[in-house]
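>> Question from a student workshop board

For tomorrow's exercise we were told to take the sequence and the ligand below, predict the bound structure, and bring the output to class. My setup keeps failing. Could a helper post the expected result so I can at least see what it should look like? The ligand is adenosine monophosphate.
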Amino acid sequence: MRVVLLGPPGAGKGTQAQIIAGRRGVPAISTGDIFRANVSGQTELGLLAKGFMDAGELVPDEITVSMVRDRLAEPDAKVGFLLDGFPRTIPQAERLRSSLQELGHGLDRVLELVVDEDELVRRLSSRRMLVDGQWVQRDDDDPETVRRRLHVYQEQTAPLSGFYETAGLLARIAAVGSVEEVTARALAALGQPGPERSDPTGQPSAG
Ligand code: AMP
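>> Workshop helper replied:
Here is what the output should look like for this input. Compare the format with yours to find the bug.
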């Protein structure tokens, strides 16, 4: 399974990526998480990325693309992957296509999580993450940066929806309701039933 999750900040990509990837036995690869880990570790990449992230801007394509290329070359991504937060620009999508082509692969599906903007703002302003046992707000979830990130999404990332629709890869689902409801829609859109449907006992399975 080689899948991209597309959707604005606050659509729930990270949550769904973890669940779906776990069920399908592929790694969930989040460029935002990789950048955040590098920022906390104060690596060279983290220092480069931090200013862009704090401003709600995208990290430049050349930095992001080579980082993803390296990640996709790791052994666990051989069986497939679920990309969360990449690509975010048309040039990134083109570079992803050519990198996969070189490996003799292509994407199976691009799943777009659709949520209206008012709901996104509500979700992002109340979102907290657990760091060292404490619930904290992400640095880029303050109201001004959220507005900027949503604007950047509309300008630079939303065109990917048309790009992947033309390629015949796009499936859109409404990312509203409970986490379980969204997961069920996502698994249905990915073309294979989830464990709940295939297992009449309702026991979770490895997927
Ligand atoms: P996320 O956790 O996906 O919301 O990403 C947090 C931040 O990391 C974004 O606002 C960007 O600054 C940066 N980032 C994550 N993924 C990408 C990407 N594919 N291209 C450029 N910047 C990215």
